[in-house]
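Section 3.1: Structural characterization of target chains.
Under the original work plan, the team committed to producing a structural model for every single-chain target entering the pipeline before any wet-lab resources were allocated. The record below documents one such target. The sequence was received from the expression subgroup and is listed exactly as submitted; it comprises 407 residues.
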Amino acid sequence: MGFELFIAGRYLRARRKYRFISLITFLSVAGVTVGVMALIVVIAVMAGFESDLKKRILGIDPHIVLERSDGQLTDYQRLCERMKAFDGVTSAAPFITTQTLLRSGVGIAGSVVRGIDPNAVDVVIQGMENLGLTALRDLERDDAGSDPALPGIVLGHELARSLGVIEQDQLYLISPRGMVSPVGHMPAMKRFRVVGIFETGMYEYDGSLAFIRLEDAQQMLRMGRTVTGIEMRVDDIYDAGKIVKSILKELGAPYTARDWMEMNRNFFSALKLEKTMMFILLTLIVLVAAFNISSSLIMMVMEKTRDIAILKAMGATNDAIRRIFVFKGVAVGIFGTLLGGGLGTLLCLLLKRYEFVKLPSDVYYITTLPVQLEWSMVVLIGLSTLAICLLATLYPAGRAAGLNPPE
């Protein structure tokens, strides 16, 4: 196999009269390089976006939610301890969720209010200090006077801005679960004091979510000693689906359980589809480079017809001739893949370290590109590129091997 590699190397260094073929070879290498580099950078940036969004979502949302299809949970303290006994579950806490109206002195807005136990939910919701939820845990009621201190509420940044309130301001929480009076159904209304404002960077949460204490939610909604459900956190988020099946198998109906992937299925499916489409579109760049490789090899076969005839007359087999042109095309693919992989990896590391690409803060929830370089994806891109380049060499190599020396 030694002379095949030697001749393929000679053909890569085309002489002056084959300068056009050399130019096509150079463009082929450049095309493979640009395609591989673009693939690595784009996939790394999209993986960074996905990881960052997943981290933000799971910082507030639980990994698993347990509810009853026929109403509220009653004996939730015992059920919480039972959930903690499942393998993989690290924490469990009760919660209440409801849709309400919030009215301040300058505005009114719809909101999703979550009643939580601040002493139990700190291991379910990550970063309670950053979310300002510790204010609910540290809130002390002054029951000594005739007018006890107001219950506290923590609002999302955008929700607080639409209501025109800041910390220590007061607002009214209005719930459709009220009472029946002689004049008809009266919604429940209670005054709260803003004790904290959080900002997650996700408009869906910052613009509609509010937290209050569990007992305040039970009193406000007239739920007695019941809750909406139990939220849980697990060791490995990718085992949440298996844990859900174990829980449902043991509890059975009317209990229902959902994991974080099911609760955010539409969002992560769209993100995965976008990532796949970007991979396919950028692979077209590599395909164009592969066509250039095939074209340059076909032109070289036409130019080297006399050389091929002499080699066959000297005893070279069809397989040997085929290997010469396959080696040349694969060499172009390897060089372009290595160069593109190195440049793409270097650019990703620079983007991650120096963050020189800035994003407008009024459009995106982050100000710099998040980059997460996955080496398995880099290897997959490299192997896919080499496979495409190899396939591009098969036709011209087969055409070269099929030449008849006497003709």
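The longest helix spans residues 19-60.
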